[in-house]
Amino acid sequence: MLKKIIALVIVLFSVHVAYGQDDLLQMLNEELPKETVYTQATFKATRLVNGQTMETISKNHLNFWISHRFGSVNSGFISNFFGLDEARIRLGLEYGITDRLLVGVGRSSEEKTYDFYTKYKLLRQSNVFPFTLSAYGSMDLNTMATGYVMNSESQMKFYKNSERLTYTSQLLIGRKFSEKISMQLVPTFLHINKVENPYMDNDLFSLGMGGRYKVSNRVTLSAEYYYNFTDRNAYQLATGTPYPYHNSLSLGVDIDTGGHVFQLHFTNARGMVDRHFIALNTGTWENADIFYGFNIARTFSLSRDNKKK
C-alpha cells in the first residue's frame, strides 16, 4: 500500500513539474523582447515647413527641392498683389548615402546664400524604443557684395570670406504617437561668424518644435515654431532700438502624390535657410508680415536594382 501511495505522489509531482515548466516557459516568452519593428513615415518629408524633420531618405535616392516664398500679404493689392508680384526661391538637392545618412546642398536667392548640410538618424522609434533621434549640421555661405543692406536695414560689410559663414547644429527628437499625430523637438545652436553690430551675439540658442496631423493618406496639416533665447531688453537698453528679429511660426498643408510632396504654407519667415528663418527673421504675424509659399519635393531612385526592374 505504501508503495502505491509513493508511486501516486511521484506521478502527481511529475505532472505538477511539467505544468510548472510550461508556465515558466510562457512567462519567459512574454518577457523576452520580440522582433524589433521600426516606426515608418513619422513625417511626410525631410522638411516640415522651413526646418528639418528627423526623417532621412533611402539609400541611393535623390531629393530635388523647389522652395518658393512670395512677398508679405500686407504689401497691398494694387502695388504688390498681396505679395504675389515678388518672390524668393531656393533650389536644393539631397542624397541618401545610406538609409540613415544624407547630405544636401542648396542655393537661395535670399542673400544669395549657398547651404551645405548633413543629417544622420542616430536612433529609431520602434516597439522597444519610444522616439527617433537625428543629428543635423549645416554651413551657410552668404555671397552678397559687401556693403549691402540687410532686411533689418543695417548695412553689412565683409572684410574676409570667413565672415560670410554661419554654422547650425541640431538634434531632432521625434515621435509618432499614432497614425495621425507626430511631433518633434529641435534643440538648435547657431554660430554666425559676423553679426551686424557689436550688441548682437554671434551665438544663438533656439528651441524648435513642430508637428503634423494626418487628415488622410494623402493630406497632412503641419505646424512649426522656433523660440530664440535672446535678451531683447538688454539689446534695447544698449541701442535704444527694439531687437529687429522675431521667432518663426509657420502653418501648412502637405499633399503626397507618391513621387512628389507638395507643401503649401503661411509663415512669418521669408528665408528658407537656417540662418534666415531662425536667426534673422524680421516678420511678425501681429503686423501681418505673412508670406505665402510652397515646397515641392521630387524623389528619384538611383539604385541599380530599381533601374533593372
Summarize the entry for a quick read:
With about 300 residues, this protein is an alpha+beta fold. It has helices at about 1-30, 75-80, 230-240, 275-280, 305-309, and strands spanning about 60-70, 85-95, 100-110, 115-125, 130-140, 150, 155, 165-175, 180-190, 205-215, 220-230, 250-255, 260-265, 290-300. It is built from five helices and 14 strands.
Structure explained in plain terms:
Helix content is about 15%, strand content about 40%. It is α+β, with helices and mostly antiparallel strands and about 300 residues long. The chain has a 12-stranded antiparallel β-barrel. It has a two-stranded antiparallel ribbon with strand order 6-7. It is globular, with a radius of gyration of 27 Å.
Note the beta-strand portion: 35-45%
Put simply, the count of helices is 5
Q: What separation lies between the terminal Cα atoms? A: 79 Å
For the largest beta-sheet, the strand count, sense and barrel status come to: 12 strands, antiparallel, barrel
* CA-based gyration radius: 27 Å
Which residue ranges are poorly predicted, with pLDDT under 50 across at least 5 consecutive positions?
2-21
Helix content: 10-25%
